[in-house]
Structure prediction request, 413 residues.
Amino acid sequence: MKRAQLESNVLVLVTLALTAFGLVMVYSATSARAVDGGNGRPMEYLTRQALFAGIGLVALLFAARTPYSFWRKAAPSFVLISLVLLAGVLLVGQSVNGARRWVPIGPFAFQPSELAKLALAAWVAAYLARKRTRPESLKELAKPLGLVTGLACVLILVEPDLGTAVAVVVMLAGILVVAGLPNGLLVRAFAIVAAAGALAIWLEPYRRARFFAFLDPWHDPQGAGFQVVQAMIGLGSGGWFGVGIGHGVVKVFDLPEAHTDMIFATVGEELGLLGTAGVIGAYAAFAWAGFRIALACKDPFGKLLAAGLTVLICGQAAINLAAVLAIAPLTGITLPFVSYGGSSLIAALAGVGILLNIGSADAVGRQARVRDRSRGDGRSRGAVDRRRRSAEPARRAGDLRRVAGSTRGAARS
Prediction:
């Protein structure tokens, strides 16, 4: 049982460690700016992020105690609600930096795209687990998986939010690979998605500027390439061990979004190469534990959902890290558990709770199988019970024949 719980323990430790580390780094990235040139409230972002973390931990506990089969039944309703919210946010959403991604709820703001990611993961996993035959052509893949996912991505792109749309596509690709779709079909589907992504980049001027800045950020270091250049300066300034938590200077005025998209650059400046390697190692451990849970799960829905959630969280982390390291264009996607943001943190913690429930259900099943094998005949509990029930009528009939024979013998005597 201890070996069966190893993956769950790793998930819990890594998640709590990254969340606590994120609180420290959010405070480090925002406190100096608030004092030197902001609102004079250095604890504001830390307080809000701690509140989000508390809500997220409650969501984690709720999801961990809810049988994961619940999400199979609720997935269609959640997908419908997500699509309605994604459409509604374009009309009544709060505009921040030219994007409408948030629905204001009192002093806070809710991001419907975070709910859509979890809902789509559960719905796609449920659909593929329910079908007896896997999709073999683009037409079968498009109806309804491609249509529903494509509609959600279009609504997200209109906000605009290319990073979340990319995360959804990566999550979907992970589930399809685990479901065992033919390689040729996956290649054709990827080509279509890549063409659609290139078109989305070309149609938006700011996305084109980001893409060309990624190719050569030093061509326009004070314009389109400013954020990438400052991130590289912050990472390079840290050296091996960093300048110390709270002592970074790039984050104060030079690095835009130092507490959200670019928080990894703050980590590199203040904790150096060892700190950044530790963060990458934590996500690698998370991926190992998540995929181990997916591989061990015998239920097709649980296997696909666990794989999708693991790809969603670790894929989002990979996209963010690649953008900060100038390996990929900027997408505006946050670093799970670490970056500032309430909706993303709560959704990620809820996803971990679902993973823990899948892992615990599998652990209980493995423990039952171990107990059955300890009986010595190698049969499962159900097989042993059925064998005993089938032998019971024959035993009773034998007893009746023996009683009848003894009665006839007594009568002859």
Observations:
- The longest helix spans residues 263-296.
- The chain has two domains: 69-340, 375-407.
- The chain is about 75% helix and 5% strand.
